[in-house]
Design brief:
alpha+beta, 5 helices, globular, eight-stranded mixed sheet
């Protein structure tokens, strides 16, 4: 009887040790997954990987994604940016400079230059870009020799710099002409909470672009978007947004013009323009959509005129109307 009790005790202890071993193994598996992930990139442990609390993951959009940026995807830069410094050969010109940085998923522009997947575009044409990482920053330089050189530096929060000491994300644009430099700082989340109440912003613009991409497939049509800088020329000879001033709405003279945020002095404040040039006779033909705000309410205007001055009317496409309304109100 004593032997049986002893054997039972040994078996019980063995099962207990086995259970503990399995529990320990689970923890090690989790740890080993993290370690493998770190080692696969041949990088030392990143503080942000282990130090950022879980509740901060909702702010991932504030982390610059260098890999995406190099392919012309600027999603990680979405948000509001403000000019904090502008210098030229003769000194500081911040107070006298009126310039804005506009960033969408596929374009970055300050009104003088535009960056996208194709490179950098200025008045002389398009230029290929070379990228290199320097002390935690990403720098884009022209790949070819030109009369005017450019440099665009992306400085994530935490990188040492002379402008804000790494407090927030920075984009620094340098132009050799007159040694001109623009420094843009991304506003903090607390500064941009009001964006949710804006009629239009870059987040909504990106959502509309994704929606149009899917919707156009159902229509078997391809659409070109006005990029916010370069005139959108259509097959009938019109050019937008310049020719918005020459358009009528429902045959009546109307005030219609371009607006980045949907607010302005126009009757129709246009926030996005998409055009499809038809390829089947009779030619030329086009379908031009203007997404606008009329008295603060979203409206989709369409122009299919083939010659002479254009004339917009409200679209009858139910999916397009509901899609724009849904994006505009959220």
């Amino acid at each position: 009887m004593k032997k049986i009790c002893t054997m039972a005790t040994i078996l019980t202890c063995g099962l207990f040790v086995s259970a503990c071993g399995k529990e320990s193994l689970k923890v090690k598996d989790n740890q080993s997954t993290i370690t493998t992930s770190k080692n696969s990139n041949n990088k030392s442990t990143s503080p942000k990987f282990s130090a950022i609390p879980k509740h901060t993951t909702k702010h991932k959009e504030a982390i610059m994604n260098f890999e995406q940026i190099q392919t012309g995807n600027y999603s990680s830069l979405s948000g509001d940016w403000q000019l904090i410094k502008a210098t030229a050969k003769n000194g500081d010109i911040t107070d006298s400079t009126q310039v804005e940085l506009s960033i969408t998923k596929n374009n970055l522009t300050d009104g003088q230059i535009t960056m996208n997947a194709a490179g950098l575009n200025d008045n002389s044409g398009n230029h290929k870009l070379n990228y290199q990482k320097e002390q935690g920053t990403l720098v884009a330089n022209l790949a070819d020799d030109t009369s005017i050189n450019y440099s665009i530096k992306f400085c994530p929060t935490g990188t040492t710099n002379e402008y804000n000491n790494g407090v927030r994300n920075l984009i620094v644009i340098w132009i050799s002409n007159n040694n001109y430099t623009e420094v843009f700082e991304q506003k903090a989340s607390s500064d941009v909470n009001k964006r949710n109440n804006d009629l239009w912003n870059t987040d909504k613009d990106d959502k509309l672009e994704s929606f149009i991409s899917q919707w156009s497939k159902t229509m078997n049509q391809d659409y070109q978007k006005y990029d916010g800088t370069n005139e959108l020329k259509v097959s009938t000879g019109m050019s937008y947004p310049s020719d918005l001033a020459n358009e009528t709405v429902k045959g009546q003279q109307a005030s219609i013009g371009w607006s980045r945020d949907g607010k302005g002095s126009y009757e129709y404040n246009v926030v996005a323009i998409y055009n499809h040039n038809g390829t089947l006779p009779p030619l030329p033909n086009r379908i031009t959509y203007c997404f606008a705000f009329h008295n603060g309410k979203p409206v989709v205007l369409v122009d299919q005129s083939r010659d002479g001055g254009g004339d917009f009317e409200e679209t009858q496409n139910v999916k397009l109307n509901s899609g724009f309304n849904e994006i505009a109100k959220n």
